[in-house]
Write a structure and sequence with these properties.
heme; 11 helices; Cyt_c-like_dom; about 50% helix; about 210 residues; mainly alpha; signal
Length: about 210
């Protein structure tokens, strides 16, 4: 809760995210190599890879730069991923800005999700104060579109499996590029059943 309050206090002083101005048309050409995993328009058909369409450009820039940084520092900084690190290490800041602009300009496709768990909705909207779990809605919003100025990504319609993978990585501290360790702090309190339910609910939000 203290980490959330600190992050939100920082947000209150921010007017807009700091990022380069990307060229979406240039990014479209550069994204051809990304299409095998993320789809031609950023709507990945493989559920272990994220949908990028409609994501905040500043968030996409941050992740690409941190994949690159991890490769350049041997994992001491940034976000380590063998596939994305290899893809990002040769990208310039301009490339990254262009790719982010392209994917942000694309329309997210949200699939219908059967059997949406009520437990997932309850956790997302209300958390579980008895276990010290903050609601997801506090940072990602009621429509799961996130807050760009704060660096909180849009989650709506994301693949449930991808969300599940990332929550497990945060919980196991294999991913640690979250603001003030907030996602690690929340996810370490989640059970496997919680993560399953949350992932399915979030993927159903349109």
């Amino acid at each position: 809760m203290k980490k959330l309050a600190l992050a939100l206090s920082v947000v209150a002083t921010m007017s807009s995210p700091v990022m380069a101005e990307g060229n979406a048309e240039a990014g479209k050409t550069k994204a051809i190599v990304c299409s095998a995993c993320h789809g031609v328009d950023g709507n990945s058909m493989i559920d272990m890879y994220p949908k990028l369409a409609g994501q905040h450009p500043s968030y996409l820039e941050k992740q690409l730069k941190e994949f690159r940084s991890a490769m350049q520092t041997g994992g001491k900084e940034g976000r380590m991923d063998p596939i994305m690190g290899g893809m990002a290490v040769a990208l310039s800041d301009e490339d990254i800005a262009d790719l982010a602009a392209f994917y942000a300009s694309q329309k997210l496709v949200v699939a219908d999700v059967a059997d949406v768990p009520e437990a997932g909705e309850a956790l997302y909207k209300g958390g579980d104060m008895a276990r010290g779990i903050t609601s997801c809605i506090a940072c990602h919003g009621p429509d799961a579109k996130g807050m760009e100025a704060a660096g909180f990504p849009s989650l709506a319609g994301q693949h449930a499996n991808y969300i599940k993978i990332q929550l497990n990585k945060f919980r196991d501290t294999n991913r640690h590029n979250d603001l003030n360790g907030m996602m690690q702090d929340v996810s370490k309190k989640l059970s496997d059943a919680d993560i399953e339910a949350l992932s399915k609910y979030i993927s159903s939000i349109k």
